[in-house]
């Protein structure tokens, strides 16, 4: 607990190097995952604001570490409040969509949105966001099973929130995509040179897709 304040200071200090910021953010990411008490301590030291600013770093690894650190603050109420701001949510959607340039950052951002989407207010804000459709389309077609898994958790949560969220998903073509996705693997046809882990990940996404469509039918 005593290390949190000096680590946050290193992240926000203009004299710190990118390496110092990156390693401090990694440490804070780990600390945030310990328990609610450490989350609250990070928040009380203005961690959300500091991490948010670090997400604008010119260094890819610093941006990714800041995104991961913020993600681990969920489900703290202050972090949920931060994400409900449309301008903040716009940034997270942009990071999630940046799968080609910064896959690890995209994975972290998508994971955060997946977790946060269980909150109905954030789910509604996501559906109303300007680039929501672009994000869904990009991530469904990205070819990365980890990211797709996170996206499907997000879609599952939004689908659970009822008709208004479901209508926004329908506009993206995601439900139609999932129907075709399931059809492609209905007979367990996944002889694509995958490892056993990749096959497991693939079938997890197929099962999630089935559950999403089950809810709307």
How does this structure look, described?
By secondary structure, the chain is an all-alpha fold. The protein has two domains: 1-73, Leucine-rich Repeat Variant, CATH 1.25.10; 99-217. It has 14 helices and no strands. It has helices spanning 4-12, 18-32, 36-44, 47-54, 60-71, 77-84, 86-97, 103-116, 120-128, 132-140, 145-160, 163-172, 174-184, 196-216. Helix 11 packs antiparallel against helix 12 (163-172). The chain starts with a helix and ends with a helix. The model has no long low-confidence stretch (mean pLDDT 93).
Walk me through the topology.
Elements: H1 4-12, H2 18-32, H3 36-44, H4 47-54, H5 60-71, H6 77-84, H7 86-97, H8 103-116, H9 120-128, H10 132-140, H11 145-160, H12 163-172, H13 174-184, H14 196-216
Helix pairs in contact: 1-2, 2-5, 4-5, 5-8, 7-8, 7-10, 8-11, 9-12, 10-12, 11-12, 11-14, 13-14
What is the structure about, briefly put?
The chain is mainly alpha-helical and 217 residues long. The protein has helices at residues 4-12, 18-32, 36-44, 47-54, 60-71, 77-84, 86-97, 103-116, 120-128, 132-140, 145-160, 163-172, 174-184, 196-216.
Characteristic key phrases:
single chain, 217 residues, 2 domains
Based on DSSP secondary structure assignment, what is the total number of beta strands? 0
What structural class do the secondary elements suggest? mainly alpha
Largest sheet: none
Rg from Cα: 18 Å
| Low-pLDDT residue intervals, each spanning 5 or more residues | none
Element-by-element helix/strand order: HHHHHHHHHHHHHH
Overall average residue pLDDT: 93
Number of domains: 2
Shape: globular
End-to-end distance: 48 Å
What share of the residues does DSSP label as strand, in percent?
under 5%
Total number of helical segments?
14
**Helical content, roughly?**
over 70%
Q: What assembly state would you assign to the polypeptide chains in this entry?
A: single chain
